[in-house]
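Protein in question quoted for reference:
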Amino acid sequence: MLKREHVRSLLAQYIEVPGAKLLNKLGLTPNWTTVIGFSFCVASALLVGLGELLYGGILFLFGAGLDLFDGGLARLTNTESPFGALLDSVLDRLGEASLLLGIAAYILLSDFSKEKTFVYIMVLILSLILSQSVSYLRARGEGLNAYTRTGLMTRTERVIILGVGLVIDHLVNVDFMLWVLLLVSVISFFTLFQRIFAIRNILIKGD
């Protein structure tokens, strides 16, 4: 079974590095790549809010996928900076949150029953809270010199599940996204505690 580190290495070798070289030839900087990716995520949220789940899902996967390249582009051009890392981190979270806001708009503008709308919104809010908490834990751990990417569901997995979920929801014409949001919530819940204990163990070893 492939480990996440091995998969990450393959992605870097065959996708991230070639993609970063292409963006460099196009004259894009790492920060502009980050901003453009975020803009696509916001545009996808607007499409989803208008009920265009297929195009919104595809655009979100494309926009969030640009996140693969900004770091590689920074390393390639030797332009890594604390501000670039900060901008990337903030816009990643905002891009993901904007999609969930778009899904919320779609739910509220649909002709779902009050009961279904209530369940949808509660699960969506739960997935937002838990997924953002997972990301916060990583950042907080780094602030304590406890670096970890431990967990069943990192941002990469969330992006793929949400984007593909929107596409499938459009194709099957059922409430597939409700189950997708529930899946994100449940796995993020377990990931949250995985990271808490991983950071705890690192801090204990450092004492």
User: Anything to note?
Assistant: The chain is about 85% helix and 0% strand. The helical segments are 4-25, 30-49, 53-65, 67-76, 82-109, 114-143, 155-172, 176-206. Residues 4-206 form a domain with the Four Helix Bundle (Hemerythrin (Met), subunit A) fold (CATH 1.20.120.1760).
